[in-house]
Amino acid sequence: MSTIIEFTVPAEEFALYETLCVVPETTVAVERVVAHADDRIVPYFWTSGGDQEAFERAARDDHSVAELTKLDQRDGAALYRAEWVEDVETVAYAYTQAGATLLNASGKDGRWELQLRFDDEDASSSFQHYLEESNRSAEIHRLYKPTQPQMEGQPGLTDLQHDTLVTALRAGYYEVPRGLSMDELAGELGVSQQALSNRLRRGHRTLVENALTVNLSHDDV
Q1: Which residue, among 116, 97, 104, has the nearest Cα to 201 in the 3D structure?
Q2: Quick one: which of 40, 123, 134, 148 could link to 118 by a disulfide (CB 3.0–4.6 Å)?
Q3: Where is the Bacterioopsin transcriptional activator GAF and HTH associated domain (predicted)?
């Protein structure tokens, strides 16, 4: 049975530390990650908020980034493909070696919020042991089985996702007709429309996965 771990970690222990320090107001939301055998991790991620040109300059000078390519841009957000160097000292390297699936990764102001799924308990236990023994500054917020009921009415949601969904519900976003638009909701939360869309999509996916116990292959994530 799979296990999901949600935790936060300083950017220097994951990726883009130098970049996030230069542009702390920028949010990086990873869409998916592909690991290659040639010591490269290839993430696709959206950025929103802050100075986009400053982000690109910082990212191209960042020691954790081997290559950066802009793929798309809309609504004040940009989609990039990058190559992160597989540094054996980072959590990014450890989770790929453990065979975990990255469900959610959001970086801002020098920290990353991560959600990983492990297909078996041994891999999950080994990763937790790694975090403890390597003196990582990781802070585990939630550890659970997707089929188990969650504490505090949050079925696997991160605190950020939970707060966003609750705010959207109370504001009438899910009413028919809607009480406010996505743009208005984004303004109320102080984020870009693209960042809100990504947050809602991940929150909805988490709710569906846990409510329906949907099993997805790695290629689907």
Answers
A1: 104
A2: 123
A3: 5-141
Q: pLDDT value at position 215?
A: 46
Given the candidates 1.10.8, 3.30.70, 2.60.40, 1.10.10, the CATH classification of the domain at 151-220 is 1.10.10
Mean pLDDT across the chain, nearest whole number? Answer: 81
pLDDT for the residue numbered 214: 45
Contact between 53 and 72 under an 8 Å Cβ cutoff? The reply is no
SS3 labels along 51-74: CHHHHHHHHHHCCCEEEEEEEEEE
Strand partners, 74: 77
Beta bridge partners of 85: 40
Cβ(10)–Cβ(110) below 8 Å: yes
Q: How far apart are CA 31 and CA 104, in angstroms?
A: 8
Across the strands, what pairs with 41?
Answer: 35, 84
Spacing of C-alpha 159 from chain mean position: 13
Q: What is the pLDDT of residue 142?
A: 79
Q: For residues 112 and 7, what is the distance between their CA atoms, to the nearest angstrom?
A: 8
Give the start-to-end residue ranges of the domains of the chain. 3-144, 151-220
Task: Report how far residue 8's alpha carbon sits from residue 105's, in angstroms, rounded to the nearest whole number.
Answer: 9
204 and 168 in contact (C-beta within 8 Å)? no
Let me know how many helices (H) and strands (E) the chain has, helices first: 7, 8
Whole-prediction pTM: 0.62
Q: Is 131 helix (H, G, I), strand (E, B) or coil?
A: helix
